[in-house]
Design brief:
Layout lengths: L4 E6 L10 H6 L4 E4 L16 H13 L6 E6 L1 H12 L4 E7 L17 H13 L1 H12 L6 H11 L8 H9 L3 H5 L5 E6 L10 H8 L2 E5 L6 H4 L1 H12 L1
Parallel strand pairs: 1-2, 1-3, 3-4, 4-5, 5-6
Length: 244
């Protein structure tokens, strides 16, 4: 087994492991990087299921690679997977780096910094009818108001593989998962990073999320839902500071 610090990078919905290419290449060699792909995305062999099923599969994959607790870097849907792994397999987790994250993607009682349920239902319906077109629209939404929106959209599109109905499981996970009670019980370091212009998960979620988890947080001005594409050098520094 390796003595390196292990970092598991979990991408968001509609993307693939290649979204992390630049960051992974720029991180120092003493960090061992694992980049599993979520079901229905990229070349993933993971079986679709509920959030716990997928989290368990990834936890087993990580456990086969290292006997040391790993850091989990989760972006968007990947952050939900990371939180669930930490809740269920805490001994395997050294800490969480969560980007564009929320414990509850849909508006619920006492939770307004989220997407309305009807809006999510409409999005799922659009994806079922026109998956490729919906992915393109989603790329634009993720980069909305970002100072480097064109470059962000370009890289998002490069990381998107063939749209397929297997990806729908991720939308159902986002719609149905409420991790607020789970994350409040996680006892490892949690670091939150959010873009000030995030149009997918509003930055107003950061304060209640921070209070709930006793996390440390940063909100980067001028970035949207994908700050690691907008400011990659700064992001690599942010990761290094916390792992090394």
């Amino acid at each position: 087994m390796s003595d390196q610090t292990t970092l598991v990078m979990l991408h968001g919905w509609g993307s693939s492991a290649s979204i992390w290419d630049q960051v992974a290449n720029d991180l120092p060699g003493e960090i061992e990087i694992l980049r599993p792909e979520l079901p229905g995305h990229g070349a993933s062999r993971l079986m679709p299921g509920d959030l716990s099923d997928v989290a368990q599969q990834i936890a087993m994959e990580v456990n086969n690679r290292t006997d040391r607790p790993a850091w989990l870097l989760g972006w968007s849907l990947g952050a939900m997977v990371a939180m669930n792994i930490a809740f269920r397999s805490l001994s395997q987790v050294a800490g969480l780096l969560l980007v564009g994250a929320t414990p509850c993607f849909i508006q619920r009682a006492g939770w307004s910094s989220a997407m309305p349920g009807a809006e999510m239902d409409a999005f799922i319906g659009e994806f079922e009818l026109q998956p490729e077109k919906t992915l393109k629209r989603f790329s634009a939404l993720q980069a909305k108001q970002d100072k480097k929106s064109r470059e962000v959209i370009r890289q998002l599109r490069l990381a998107q593989k063939n749209a397929n109905q297997k990806m729908k499981w991720g939308l159902e996970v986002l719609k149905n998962s409420d991790l607020r009670q789970q994350v409040a019980s996680i006892r490892v370091p949690i670091f939150l990073l959010h873009g000030s212009y995030d149009a997918v998960v509003p930055a107003t979620v950061v304060h209640p999320f921070e209070v709930m988890t006793k996390a440390s947080s940063e909100i980067w001005d001028g970035t949207g839902h994908v700050p690691f594409l907008s400011q990659p050098g700064r992001f690599v520094h942010w990761v290094r500071e916390r792992l090394l």
